[in-house]
Amino acid sequence: MNGSTGAANRPAGSTARHDEQVSPYAAGFATLRQGFRAAAQRAGAELFEYLHPLNGPDGEDLATDVALLGHRDATKLLVLISGTHGVEGPFGSTCQTAWLNQNSPWRLPEDTAILAIHLINPWGTAWSRRVNEDNVDLNRNFIDWSGPAPVNNGYAGLHDALTCREWEGPDRIGADEKLAVARKKLGHAGLGAIVEAGQYEFVDGMFYGGGGPVWSNRTLNEILTTFAGDARQVIVFDLHTGAGPYGYPALLSVASSEHPGLAWGKSIFGPALATVLTGPSAKTGTGIATTATGYVSDAVRKAIPNARVLPLVVECGTLDGPAVMEAVQADNWLHLFGKIDSPLGKRIRETLRAAFIPNDPDWQRTCLSSSLRYFDRALTDLQAVEIAKDNSRHPGQTPSTVRATVADLVPADDGKITTPAVQIDELHKSFGSLLVLKGVNLTAHAGEVISMIGSSGSGKSTFLRCINLLEQPDGGKVAIDGEVIKMKPLANGRLGPADMAQVERIRARVGMVFQNFNLWPHMTVVENIVEAPRHVLKEPREKAVEHAHALLKKVGLAEKHAHYPGQLSGGQQQRAAIARTLAMRPKVILFDEPTSALDPELVGEVLRVIRQLAEEGNTMILVTHEMQFAREVSHKVLFLHQGKVEEEAAPAELFGSPRSERLRQFLARTL
Ligand SMILES: Nc1ncnc2c1ncn2[C@@H]1O[C@H](COP(=O)(O)OP(=O)(O)OP(=O)(O)O)[C@@H](O)[C@H]1O
């Protein structure tokens, strides 16, 4: 793209450096760039570059690259932005490159396009800084520059302490004391609300929003105007790290007021999407600065005024808030007063990188795989909007109501079904006079992980058992993969299955992992696994055995195939039981407190397997007492209380800002 920001196409790889072997999370700018451009070319995208006026630390050219998959005049557009905060860039870049590779070569419907904007703050990524070349926090720079910039009086009182010249010594002790007093008075959240709100007065200060639109701001606007001008339905992901619970990729939409995109987001992601409304006194449990102005989200909506825009932020938690703030403050000191290449300088830079991208394969894997699933889901919904619009069977219905019609399967262009994998409406169940479930609803989309938490006796296990009709519900609707289980009134006035053949067929698609493993004690592990595929799915023995060995390898039990359950530890038995469930290639897996019968030291090995299944995109409903695990692995969490869903939200929201007193008390007892 030509223009004030400068651009010219250039062959992929021309900026490659010597660090090809480095993990992408630790890679330098040139390697990230090379990987992205190569993936974009393989995917069949058109590539454009927007050259930055400065160079990187090795003298390399800096640029924001743009990959466009599909037609430029597409009306449906999915946008991925990485590196708004430079030091977080390797995460967003890795997501973009992995997603392009995952579905390569891409085949998109004619009016759907993907726009991947790679490292919008290239200077920040190259120099491992959160800010840009002007010390500007890009996510505070998208304000309306035609009027005066917001004033942050609270920050002004702390500026001297936050930017103390000394690294150590009496001035530094005094500055730290001043900040400690403020933190004690306001709490870390209160202090953060002031410091992270952004300020437009001190060019050398923290969270500086700038004095006008910076290069990255102008470039993003130019890209959006050029490539998104014709779009009418736009979903934008801005990829971040550094706030919220460790290793949990929260999905947020940040907005200063309600807009139609938010309702659209809720219809796609349900409670997995947390809406963060910003304002001078707004609060959230997500770790995002609600008091700030000038977010990228504001920019994308303004740049494409004729479209319905859903601006999303993927925010992967790392360290706790004070540790991240300390790392950012130290980095600000280094660039104001320190020596970048000194041992102290190197330590500060390493600390900053680790505060935003932990050197932890579990964190990296979880954040990447969950983010890719968010992209998949968003793209599927874009396609569903298109189908719904053209589908004369649904006149007058909005796309989201079409999606919510359980028994009405709507195949997308790529053949994917857009109905939920599991939908439960108003489920009721009594045992004698004991009313256990009083109208429970749940929707699980393909690839979603939902955890159910609640006190003992609240009905969690009963609910799971009703899903695959191990218990007969008294009322309500259960649909698996769009197929509603047919029920009929029985002589005793209750409901029962109308068609047992249908129940058997649906049960074969719903795997269940029990608390007590339920392995056959007289069969070896491998015989346990092949039993159901052989007799229910009629798989040939050889094929079933081969699959069983592959599954045993997956759960780390390759060596134990000939053992009997009694010769295995509890953790090993549960992993074998998971392999047995997977052998049926289930559409959805139900876990009923899979670790509660285990000794504490065996819990981890089972949770690792479940986490891996979540990362692979399996649809799972998990009843658990492992709160931290539920928080890390789930897209949404349901709190069941006395047979009703009391609260349902994304984990960051449910655990961070419980709304009901009952949930607060429950969490206080269990966390
Ligand atoms: N087959 C049954 N017959 C009679 N009552 C039952 C039966 N199964 C469960 N219940 C009762 O239903 C209520 C809910 O039990 P359920 O096992 O679903 O709770 P839960 O939330 O899973 O509890 P926990 O966390 O202790 O496993 C309890 O009061 C239990 O005693």
UniProtKB/TrEMBL annotation:
Its main location: membrane. It is found in: Cell membrane. It comes from the Bacteria. CDD domains: ABC_HisP_GlnQ (cd03262), M14-like (cd06233). Residues 1-20 are annotated as: Disordered. The keyword Transferase does not apply. Belongs to the ABC transporter superfamily. SUPFAM superfamilies: P-loop containing nucleoside triphosphate hydrolases (SSF52540), Zn-dependent exopeptidases (SSF53187). PROSITE patterns: ABC_TRANSPORTER_1, ABC_TRANSPORTER_2. Residues 422-667 form the ABC transporter domain. It is a peripheral membrane protein. This is DUF2817 domain-containing protein. It holds the Pfam family ABC_tran. The keyword Nucleotide-binding applies. SMART domains: AAA. Keywords: ATP-binding, Nucleotide-binding, Transport.
